[in-house]
């Protein structure tokens, strides 16, 4: 019996007749989605949308999918030749399609429709319908499942009609009468079914019963729908009334008139490069049971190479379409006029198929019907290029599964997916090797090889956009004797780059080509498009965009969706949007030309307020006991999303890290020193925990520069102290101590004991890093003496731990233990888990060096648990490094090896290469006795 997957009824799996236990409903839904797309990659975002639909998403949708896939892999482990693999950007279930009833249903239908034998066709249709065991995907009720279910039910009904027609044609009317009676009770308004029932009754010698059924149907249609029976049904009724002799025997099949073979494809592109993955995807779609393939641009807009790809692929596969190729440019984004109407396009297709002008029907529906009749059963390719929307495309889709359709559009034609099961092929920019190859094919390999730096610059400025590369090539070819460096220099200035990407006509002017997409936008979407061009960062979140636009998140999401449909932005991860580099330049142009300076500045102020207040909220969760600075309330129409806990704060900061750095640079560029300073403060804890050491230096250097313009000296002292600490973390100790001594001098000058204490605290850690534990202890003691008079128990606890650490480093273990135990009590009283972890780490060090190795392991493990819960990767690496030494002293070499390997990996991720080498030496010499602990001292915050 083998493997069987069932979707046409309950979602089930069997191996040799024995059921495979799949589990709960959501798991079966994930399996169903993967089986519908068997042997194809299903992006994670699609899985989330299809499985959860409008239902509340799990806290981590991607995590939910990953968990479901893990459970499915376990459930399907015993299913032969079935495997689920991760292949970016999603999962692929590999299996034999014939084991899936849905795909077997489609295969049998295709084979039935392709055969010329009525007997064979009836057998195949019957076998196809036997695949059904109930309502498809029973129990799954998301919008996607409902849409696919409705489509499948329609396909089943169509197959039943075709089988009935064949049986009527072959004299099986007697056996059909009871079957059709039951079906007409279930579907009383189905006129095609009614016609089949009338014909079966008439041929079975029951004309009076046929006429009675017709009268009942006519009355029901009038009552329910307010309509009369269709012309074909009225004609059949008349034939029964007159006992038309043609009804007594099957209508003979006549040979169709010869139809010309259209060959409408434009000339193939002469220089085509790369796109191997996309070409393979088109081939894969072609090999499926007749679908519709849609090519749509996400990573770019006009100029991404949609028509280029479609034309190349079509010419390479002409043998697959022996009955011809139809092509039309629908002018969806043509500057010369309105998009082509479907009526105009279908009339052109009818003419290409040999229909005389006088024989073309007047009504569009009749034209479409004639077109679909002419291509039915033909192996034809229909290329619908440059479509504006789904409505323009739908009338031009053949009804026959033997035809293949390629649609190119700047818009995402989602309606083709839901209504016609189309496959979307998202085109992104060309990878650098393919872009270089394309440029070389235009200019010749020698010219490209002669100026490698200029070529690299040109590739960077074109950012993988085929149209931009073509424009650059056209200009370089026009001036064959000019060095490529001249053209590269012209494009170097980003603000004028679009001026240089102009080959002299509308279709060779990148700015003009992009403008054709922008002009289709609604005014609010066009405004948001311009504002996104000036927003800080390479991408933006929904709530940041809402603040930028001064619109509620729901309204902003709708506008972003409009931009996404037009391929002007890409939602590259859920809730985050980005633009291609050249589109962003176009958006910046839009902002400069159509938005006033006041509007632009107000938008930037709002988005900077969003980043500032959100970052402060996140930092308060990471470091609730640390000092804070006053921040003015956010501007009106700033939309802040609550950050509930530490994991959410770290996740937000991880996602927004590049945007936050860009926001600070934007504030500096606009000479807004308050924003520069206020953005630096909440980033410090995060940058330290995550080991972003160079970013930390840059952030505080920018803050220090900005504080020179502030009347209050306190921010400048803070900035120097933090900058010194950041330099120390990088090992730049001379710069660190210089900044710290300046900060200390300023704090003493302004008689600020709090700032003096904090600066002594950082000087202690800096001297400790330099190996001078005695000087470190002196500064730590001064910090503690100052804090004793300030009544700041949280900071006193920190200072005591630092005094204890450096006393321990100097071998003064009793003194060290006293200070650290007092610090631990204070940290626990004030619920400071980070301070508690640092102090436990110090106590672990003291215990190890006083021979209490088991106690040391206990202290270190407690510290490590707290640091991991906090997400403090930097200090977790240090504690992992240190815990290996008592493990080694206890002879627990495997445990030591495990923690040192983990420490080494974290150090590598943090870019701390000297620590990586040191830990590797510890691993290499694990069995040696008396290995001293290395590594940095405690957290220098």
Automatic annotation (TrEMBL):
Annotated region (Disordered), positions in chain: 244-269
First and last residues of every TPR repeat: 717-750
Keywords, in A-Z order: DNA-binding, TPR repeat
GO annotation terms (biological process): regulation of DNA-templated transcription
InterPro entries found in the cross-reference section: BTAD (IPR005158), P-loop_NTPase (IPR027417), Sig_transdc_resp-reg_C-effctor (IPR016032), TPR-like_helical_dom_sf (IPR011990), TPR_rpt (IPR019734), WH-like_DNA-bd_sf (IPR036388)
Domain Bacterial transcriptional activator span(s) in chain numbering: 100-241
Protein name, entry field: DNA-binding SARP family transcriptional activator
Gene Ontology MF, one: DNA binding
Species whose genome carries this gene: Actinocrispum wychmicini
SMART domains xrefs: BTAD (SM01043), TPR (SM00028)
Stretches with biased composition (Pro residues): 253-269
């Amino acid at each position: 019996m083998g493997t069987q997957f069932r979707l046409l009824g309950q979602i089930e799996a069997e191996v040799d007749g024995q059921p495979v236990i799949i589990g709960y409903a959501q798991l079966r839904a994930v399996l169903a989605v993967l089986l519908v797309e068997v042997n194809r990659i299903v992006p994670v975002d699609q899985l989330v949308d299809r499985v959860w639909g409008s239902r509340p998403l799990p806290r981590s949708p991607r995590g939910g999918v990953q968990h479901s896939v893990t459970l499915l892999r376990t459930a399907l482990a015993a299913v032969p030749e079935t495997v689920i693999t991760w292949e970016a950007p999603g999962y692929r279930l590999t299996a034999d399609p014939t084991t899936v009833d849905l795909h077997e249903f489609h295969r049998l239908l295709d084979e039935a429709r392709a055969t010329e034998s009525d007997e064979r066709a009836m057998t195949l249709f019957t076998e196809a319908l036997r695949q059904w065991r109930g309502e498809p995907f029973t129990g799954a009720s998301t919008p996607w499942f409902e849409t696919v279910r409705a489509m499948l039910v329609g396909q089943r009904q169509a197959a039943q009609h075709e089988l009935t027609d064949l049986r009527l044609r072959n004299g099986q009317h007697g056996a059909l009468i009871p079957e059709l009676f039951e079906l007409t009770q279930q579907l009383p308004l189905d006129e095609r079914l009614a016609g089949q029932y009338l014909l079966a009754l008439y041929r079975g010698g029951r004309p009076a019963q046929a006429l009675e059924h017709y009268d009942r149907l006519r009355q029901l249609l009038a009552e329910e729908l307010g309509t009369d029976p269709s012309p074909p049904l009225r004609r059949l009724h008349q034939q029964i009334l007159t006992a038309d002799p043609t009804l007594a025997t099957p209508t003979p099949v006549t040979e169709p008139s010869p139809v010309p073979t259209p060959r409408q494809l434009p000339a193939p592109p002469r220089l085509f490069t790369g796109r191997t993955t996309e070409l393979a995807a088109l081939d894969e779609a072609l090999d499926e049971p007749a679908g519709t393939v849609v090519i749509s641009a996400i990573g770019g807009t006009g100029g991404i190479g949609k028509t280029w790809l479609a034309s190349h692929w079509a010419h390479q596969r002409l043998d697959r379409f022996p009955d011809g190729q139809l092509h039309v440019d629908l002018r969806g984004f043509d500057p010369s006029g309105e998009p082509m109407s479907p009526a105009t396009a279908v009339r052109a297709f009818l003419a290409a198929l040999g229909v005389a002008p006088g024989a073309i029907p007047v009504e569009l529906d009749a034209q479409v019907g004639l077109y679909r009749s002419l291509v039915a059963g033909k192996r034809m390719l229909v290329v619908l290029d440059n479509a504006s929307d789904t409505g323009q495309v739908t009338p031009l889709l053949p009804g026959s599964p033997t035809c293949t359709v390629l649609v190119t559009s700047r818009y995402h034609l989602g309606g083709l997916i839901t209504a016609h099961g189309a496959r979307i092929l998202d085109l992104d920019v060309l990878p650098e090797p393919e872009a270089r190859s394309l440029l070389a094919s235009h200019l010749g390999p020698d010219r490209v090889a002669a100026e490698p730096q200029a070529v690299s610059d040109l590739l960077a400025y074109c950012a993988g956009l085929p149209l931009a590369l073509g424009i650059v090539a056209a200009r370089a070819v026009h001036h064959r004797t000019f060095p490529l460096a001249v053209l590269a220099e012209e494009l170097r200035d980003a603000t004028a780059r679009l001026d240089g990407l102009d080959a002299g006509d509308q279709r060779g002017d990148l700015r003009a080509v992009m403008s054709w997409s922008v002009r289709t936008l609604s005014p609010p979407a066009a405004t948001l498009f311009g504002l996104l061009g000036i927003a800080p960062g390479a991408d933006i979140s929904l709530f940041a965009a809402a603040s930028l636009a001064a619109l509620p998140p729901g309204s902003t999401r709708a506008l972003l969706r409009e931009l996404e449909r037009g391929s002007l932005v890409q939602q590259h991860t859920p809730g985050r949007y980005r633009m291609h580099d050249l589109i962003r330049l176009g958006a910046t142009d839009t902002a400069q030309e159509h938005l006033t300076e006041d509007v632009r500045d107000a938008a930037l102020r709002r988005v900077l307020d969003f980043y500032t207040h959100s970052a402060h909220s996140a930092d308060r969760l990471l470091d609730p006991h640390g000092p804070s600075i006053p921040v003015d309330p956010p501007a009106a129409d700033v939309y802040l999303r609550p950050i509930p806990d530490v994991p959410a704060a770290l996740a937000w900061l991880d996602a927004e890290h590049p945007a936050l750095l860009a926001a600070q640079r934007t504030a500096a560029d606009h000479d807004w020193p308050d924003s520069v300073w206020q953005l630096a403060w909440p980033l410090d804890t995060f940058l330290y925990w995550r080991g972003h050491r160079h970013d930390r230096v840059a952030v505080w250097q920018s803050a220090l520069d900005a504080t020179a313009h502030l009347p209050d000296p306190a921010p400048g002292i803070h900035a120097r102290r933090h900058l010194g600490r950041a330099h120390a973390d990088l090992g730049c100790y001379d710069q660190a101590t210089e900044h710290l001594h300046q900060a200390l001098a300023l704090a003493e000058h302004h008689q600020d004991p709090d700032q003096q204490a904090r600066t002594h605290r950082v000087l202690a850690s800096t001297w400790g890093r330099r190996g001078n534990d005695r000087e470190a202890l002196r500064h730590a003691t001064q910090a503690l003496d100052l804090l004793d008079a300030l009544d700041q128990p949280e900071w006193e606890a920190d200072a005591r731990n630092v005094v204890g650490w450096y006393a321990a480093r100097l071998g003064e273990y009793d003194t060290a233990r006293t200070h650290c135990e007092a610090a631990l009590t204070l940290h626990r009283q004030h619920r400071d888990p980070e301070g508690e972890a640092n102090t436990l780490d110090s106590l672990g060090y003291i215990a190890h060096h006083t021979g209490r190795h088991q106690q040391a392991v206990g202290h270190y493990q407690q510290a490590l648990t707290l640091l991991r819960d906090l997400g403090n990767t930097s200090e977790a690496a240090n504690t992992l490094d240190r815990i290996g030494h008592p493990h080694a002293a206890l002879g627990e070499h495997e445990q030591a090896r495990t923690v040192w390997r983990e420490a080494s990996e974290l150090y590598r991720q943090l870019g701390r290469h000297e620590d990586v080498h040191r830990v590797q030496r510890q691993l290499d010499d694990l069995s040696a006795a008396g290995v001293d602990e290395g590594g940095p001292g405690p957290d220098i915050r």
